[in-house]
Design a protein that fits this description.
- The protein is α/β, with parallel strands linked by helices.
- The chain has a single domain, classed as P-loop containing nucleotide triphosphate hydrolases (Rossmann fold, 3-Layer(aba) Sandwich).
- Helix content is 53%, strand content 15%.
- The protein contains eight helices and five strands; from the N terminus they run βαβαααβαβααβα.
- Strands 2-3-1-4-5 form a five-stranded parallel sheet, with helices on both faces.
- α4 packs parallel to α5.
- 29% of the residues are buried.
- The mean pLDDT is 93.
- The structure holds adenosine monophosphate.
- Adenosine monophosphate (AMP) binds next to α2 and α3.
Amino acid sequence: MIKPQTFIFYGIVGSGKGTQVELLQKYLKDNNFSDDVLFTSTGSEFRELIKVDSYTSSKVKNTMEKGFLQPNFLTTSLFANILIKNLKENTTIIADGYPRTVEQSEAFEDMMNFYDRNEVKIIYIELDKEEAIKRMKLRGRADDTDEGIANRFDEYIKNVVPSMNYFMNKGGYTIYTINGSQSINDVHTEIISKLNFI
Ligand code: AMP
């Protein structure tokens, strides 16, 4: 057993971030490093939300199809609710897709202060845009239209990169940069070796 960890994953759309989150989660469980791993994906929360017929969900659906980020108040409230419902003192958190704006980074920092999580590990899967586009076109998700892809790249540059930069040179955050152009297994192996358990 290792002490409960807090991980944030960053990576351009199509970088294989979701797959690597799953592999890390499995690794932690299989090796008995953590008996409780909380995987949080705001993207999945939004996909659930739009299945329900409501005024809010119709607005969310529209924003999502266009590939834009949802407003901070909705996203932060979804993320905070996951923590409220599921977080225990010994829970390892893996955050996939949150925070994605500077405002969300500030909110995240506030939450982690509240829960006395003073060591956050950021895993940044680095991949160039051309390779990311190629991979996304193979995936075929509802928001993987040309317009959706283009807007998600814009959001990445405009909001997600500043959200990650927010943590740079701040105490309490370690950033691990991983080469995302490798095979799924090699990316996973690089993550595990860089985390050097722990
Ligand atoms: P993902 O599955 O992480 O690619 O997210 C799919 C969609 O959900 C995004 O295009 C956004 O519309 C929304 N979304 C997910 N996470 C966030 C976030 N942290 N902030 C704002 N919107 C988000």
